[in-house]
């Protein structure tokens, strides 16, 4: 069976909004009218290839012909249900029914799950504090998780900040290899001086003294990194009104989360200033999203390019919807942002079959993988390690693997699809959101059982696959 999803309603609505008959659309897409009718009535799935053809003929983005919000909601419900045996026992069909037909109930369940997750973290922190091992302050939630949710709520795109950065970049005629001095001169026009010093003297990478109106920047940073630090300071000095407007849309009111969100928005502006929207999108399309060419052309790091491509979601001129992830060797996810239905599990861990982890075995090389989730949705993933830190012998450094993924229907727009068979499902890596929430019955890499299913236990048989579970009841 071809990979795809039932998306009849959105296809029919898009066709009607375009003022096109079913017969006319079928003819333009080189498919039979009966085939299109079956798609529109959810008798057949909409495959990525057919979705791309229909989107092209209707003049819309392929992403508009998906049920992404509901698919993401269903995935989040599966994730949150994993900790409750009664809920985990529900079939995927039942979960999708709740997400599709009862969105209000689904939203309420996710809010309850998030609240329980925050309470559990608070209890764990309290236990640590009472045990005397650490002395962190205890809050009702993890602020960095709240910032991630806030960014996801805005679909990784902040229009006024992005357009403001693009206008400033155009006004200053910023150029990749001279922008540090250009931004330094711009700050001087704002009566702010830039002073370089050692990382130790600065106390980090950047420090602003509002009384003296001086920005201290670490000398050890590369010019592009210095430019990013100055761009972030420019955001805090000149875009306060726009940043505050976004902060008013945040459901979080505690001071730590608010400050972290403000920094996140300033960093968003900085990235948009160094990599102006229209210029980057045009270059990405020209080189078919070749990350290393874009990195060299704009004189920024691999991770910075990936992060910027993930934010190119302007409604009237969007790039490919990407998911972005950054992990360390231990599997900790330190950055995750998604403009796709790909869901990052909070309770199930991550999948060791994912190529993002293979990147550590081949540092500096760009790896690619067609990965298929248990629901049949497939993504093209590209991953590479990135290393940064202080300069010098034995100086501490940090290494991460950064992954960028898109729905398989967008893969032909990228250079990374070259030579890959996008249609052969037998060649796809079968991954999941994490062992606890992955329903694949037979996976040789499984570390823990799938929550909510009865294990198959037979003392008279030896199995290749650990923790095999009983199939769903019909």
Automatic annotation (TrEMBL):
Give yes or no: UniProt keyword DNA-binding.
yes
The protein's matches in PANTHER family, at most eight in alphabetical order, are given as: HTH-TYPE TRANSCRIPTIONAL REGULATOR, HTH-TYPE TRANSCRIPTIONAL REGULATOR SUTR
Q: Which UniProt keywords apply?
A: DNA-binding, Transcription, Transcription regulation
The record's Gene Ontology cellular component field reads:
cytosol
**Of which family is this protein a member?**
Belongs to the short-chain fatty acyl-CoA assimilation regulator (ScfR) family.
Q: Which domain of life is it from?
A: Bacteria
- Which Gene Ontology terms cover its molecular function? DNA binding; DNA-binding transcription factor activity
SUPFAM superfamilies given in the database record: lambda repressor-like DNA-binding domains
State the Gene3D superfamilies in the record. Answer: lambda repressor-like DNA-binding domains
- Its name, as the record gives it, is Helix-turn-helix domain-containing protein
Which residues belong to any copy of the HTH cro/C1-type domain? Answer: 11-65
In the UniProt record, does the keyword Transferase occur?
Answer: no
């Amino acid at each position: 069976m071809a990979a795809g999803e039932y998306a009849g309603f959105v296809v029919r609505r898009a066709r009607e909004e375009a003022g096109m008959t079913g017969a006319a659309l079928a003819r333009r897409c080189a498919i039979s009218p009966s085939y299109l009718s079956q798609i529109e009535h959810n008798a057949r799935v909409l495959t990525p290839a057919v979705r791309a053809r229909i989107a092209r003929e209707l003049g819309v983005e392929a992403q508009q012909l998906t049920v992404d919000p509901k698919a993401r909601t269903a995935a989040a419900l599966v994730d949150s249900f994993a900790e409750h045996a009664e809920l985990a026992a529900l079939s995927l069909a039942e979960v999708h029914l709740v997400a599709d037909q009862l969105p209000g109930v689904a939203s309420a369940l996710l809010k309850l799950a998030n609240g329980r997750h925050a309470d559990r973290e608070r209890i764990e922190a309290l236990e640590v504090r009472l045990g005397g091992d650490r002395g962190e302050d205890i809050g009702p939630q993890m602020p960095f998780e709240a910032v991630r949710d806030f960014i996801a709520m805005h679909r990784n795109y902040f229009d006024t900040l992005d357009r403001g950065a693009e206008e400033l970049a155009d006004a200053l005629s910023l150029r990749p290899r001279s922008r540090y001095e250009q931004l330094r001169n711009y700050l001087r026009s704002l009566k702010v001086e830039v002073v370089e010093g050692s990382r130790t003297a600065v106390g980090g990478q950047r420090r602003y003294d509002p009384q003296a109106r001086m920005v201290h920047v670490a000398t050890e940073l590369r010019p592009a990194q210095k430019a990013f630090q100055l761009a972030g300071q420019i955001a805090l000095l000149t875009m306060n009104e726009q940043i505050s407007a976004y902060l008013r849309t945040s459901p979080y009111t505690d001071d730590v989360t608010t400050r972290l969100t403000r920094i996140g928005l300033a960093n968003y502006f900085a990235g948009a200033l160094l990599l102006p929207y229209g210029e980057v999108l045009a270059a990405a399309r020209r080189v078919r999203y070749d990350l290393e060419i874009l990195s060299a052309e704009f004189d920024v790091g691999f991770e910075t390019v990936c992060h910027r491509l993930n934010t190119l979601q302007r409604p009237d001129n969007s790039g490919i919807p990407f998911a972005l992830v950054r992990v360390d060797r231990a599997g900790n996810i330190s950055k995750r942002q998604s403009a796709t239905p790909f869901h990052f599990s909070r309770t199930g861990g991550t999948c060791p079959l994912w190529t993002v982890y293979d990147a550590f075995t081949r540092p500096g090389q760009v790896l690619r993988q067609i990965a298929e989730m248990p629901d049949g949705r497939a993504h093209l993933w590209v991953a590479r390690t990135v290393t940064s830190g202080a300069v010098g012998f034995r100086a501490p450094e940090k290494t991460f693997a950064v992954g960028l993924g898109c729905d398989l229907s967008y893969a032909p727009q990228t250079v990374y699809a070259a030579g890959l068979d996008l249609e052969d499902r037998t060649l796809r890596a079968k991954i999941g959101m994490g062992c606890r929430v992955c329903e694949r019955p037979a996976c040789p890499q499984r570390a823990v059982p799938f929550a909510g299913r009865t294990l198959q236990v037979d003392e008279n048989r030896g199995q290749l696959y650990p923790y095999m579970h009983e199939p769903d009841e019909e």
